[in-house]
Amino acid sequence: MSDYLKQLQSQEQDKAPKKKIFSKIRYDAPVTLTFALLSLGILGLNYLTDGWTNKNLFSVYRSDFSFWWVIRLFGHVLGHMDFAHYVGNMTLFLLLGPQLENRYGSKNLLEMMGIAAVVASVFQMIFFPHTMLLGASGLVFMMIVLTSAVNLKDGGIPLSMILIILIYLGKELWNAFAVEDNISQATHIIGGICGALFGFLYSRDSKLKDSTNMQ
Q1: Residue 37 contacts by C-beta under 8 Å, 6 or more apart in sequence?
Q2: How confident is the model at residue 134 (pLDDT cuts 50, 70, 90)?
Q3: CB-CB contact of 93 with 136 (8 Å)
Q4: For labelling, which of 5, 120, 145, 152 has a CA lying 20 to 30 Å from the CA of 163?
Q5: Dist CA 213 CA 215 (whole Å)
Q6: Using one digit for the tens of pLDDT, what is the confidence trace for 38-50?
């Protein structure tokens, strides 16, 4: 009987460290993590439906106004062609997203992502009406520039932000002229421009709040 009790105690002790490990895991960036998980689920759903979901729900192109048109307006950033496309975008998205969410807040980051998605959709429908656009690469470029704009609050324009804009957006501008298929480059440029604008607007808002608090 005593051996049986000892065995039970040892089993409970083995389980205790596992509980402690799982209790330390935090859902630290709800917008970033939820977006990444939704994108992964949508990618799996696209495989199961043989591409139907991407074509009808998670890619944007010019079409008649409808409920699904509105869904595609925002939802195209959640769709990805394949797992390599998904991993390529989510690697930087998961690296930069939590930092930006901590800096600007979950609500503000979600607003930025929504606005950038709509701007890219409108641009796509006007200039590339017969081509489908999907993927989060535009949001990733927005995040790259926005991350470099974090120090705008301290006054002046950070040199790092200027270099990021010159390197990343300069490369995309070059590719837009050098590569025949310049749709993705245009999306990246739009995302970068949105990131720069959001950086200036939200840093200005932060300065106004700080000055109000000081008074």
Answers
A1: none
A2: very high
A3: yes
A4: 120
A5: 5
A6: 999 999 999 999 9
